[in-house]
Amino acid sequence: MNIKSIIFCGGGSGGHVVPALTLIKAIKSHKPEVEIFAIGSYKGIEERLFKEDKVPYKAISTGKLRRYFSWQNFLDLFRLIRGLVQAYVYLLKFSRQNTLIFSTGGFVTVPVVFAAWMQGKTVYIHEQTSRVGLANKISSFFAKRVLVTFETSLQFFPKEKTILSGYPLRDEILSPPEMVSLNEINLNEIKKPILFLTGGGNGSRLLNETLKECLSTLEQEFFIIHQCGAQFLDEYKRLETENYKVFDFITDSMIGLLNKAQVVISRAGAGTVMELLSLGKPSIFVPLAIAQKNEQLYNAIEARNKLESIVIEEKDLNSSKLIDAVQTIRSKESHQRVKRNPAVDIIKLIFEEN
User: Fold this and answer.
1) CA dist 182 to 45, 230, 231, Å?
2) 214: how many CB neighbours lie within 10 A of its CB?
């Protein structure tokens, strides 16, 4: 097989899209002759992110895959079937012998992977979390290769096709930039220690409101950068001060920000956890309780075991507990950062096997 085209699919959250964008950047660097395309949903964050990176994008219909009974399942079944037809027709444009589909998870990937399998095309999937998402679990039956981030994920997939690949990291992880700017804010000129809070690509009402309750206290010691999510941007922009700045979603400067921040407070999506682990930075994690199989809690436990990060479950979170955690985590020293990027190994595997 001589790969001429790779079609990435993934979406629903930034956590599924960022590893795809990282691999796309690496492929363009190592194999510039390979054409890159992307498939995602109509309304997900993936459309914006892929298009910002100038990746040709195809939107298809999708529905949520639930592990419980809901009347919504019947409507979503029709959306999935429609998405399957759309994906099947789109993939017909690409040669079976020269095309690889790479799925990074999310509901939108299931019809794409199944359509690719029906056409005899090669499928790889990557599971970012320590506990397996339902979409990737289904997709694994139709994949040639399953790549996982955490060793604990190996148990959920067929042994003969599963590899512990690690998480594809942005190049900046290995050598974070010295100069970091967010819009007009030059972080190198900030005199106070930096505290960064993020609720993920879509934001978190719980984290946002908890921060608001202790904002006046934390502002006395920290310069606070808050990634609040697009839906909360107007509400929190009104609260900005000299020492508190708000953004909806940060992309290009994220690694530099994570590296410069003395304190990071975050959900425990696999991408954020792995990047902080790779930077060797102990952090505060508030796992999303409704995540499938409580996957974010297990991601956060990985960071606690390796870096002594602090894990606060949603039911225990309040402003005083957050302030205490901030004071504890700021006293911890950073650990050694990783020296090799798994993205390089993933690309090598793809092109050596195909």
Assistant:
1) 20, 16, 20
2) 16
Closest CA to 126 of 27, 271, 258, 338: 271
**Rg of the chain over all Cα atoms, to the nearest angstrom:** 20
Q: Where do the domains of the chain lie?
A: 5-169+341-353, 173-329
Q: 5-169+341-353 belongs to which homologous superfamily?
A: Glycogen Phosphorylase B; (3.40.50.2000)
Buried (b) or exposed (e) across 332-345, using 16+ Cβ within 10 A? beeeebbeebbbee
DSSP three-state, residue 94:
coil
Q: Output the pLDDT for position 312.
A: 98
Instruction: Determine the Cα–Cα distance for residues 36 and 197; give it in Å rounded to an integer.
Output: 33
Name residue, tokens 């964008």. 21
CA distances from 159 to 40, 141, 151, 346, 349 (A): 29, 12, 12, 18, 17
CATH of 173-329, one of 3.40.50.2000, 3.40.50.300, 2.40.40.10, 2.60.120.1520: 3.40.50.2000
**Which has the closest alpha carbon to 201: 255, 246, 251?**
251
pLDDT of residue 65: 58
Note whether 5-169+341-353 and 173-329 share their fold. yes
Q: pLDDT tens, 79-122? A: 889 999 999 999 999 999 999 999 999 889 999 999 999 999 99
Beta-carbon contacts of 65 under 8 Å, excluding residues fewer than 6 positions away, are 76, 107, 110, 134, 135, 138
Residues making up the chain, counted from first to last: 354
Q: Distance between CA 156 and CA 55 in Å, rounded?
A: 32
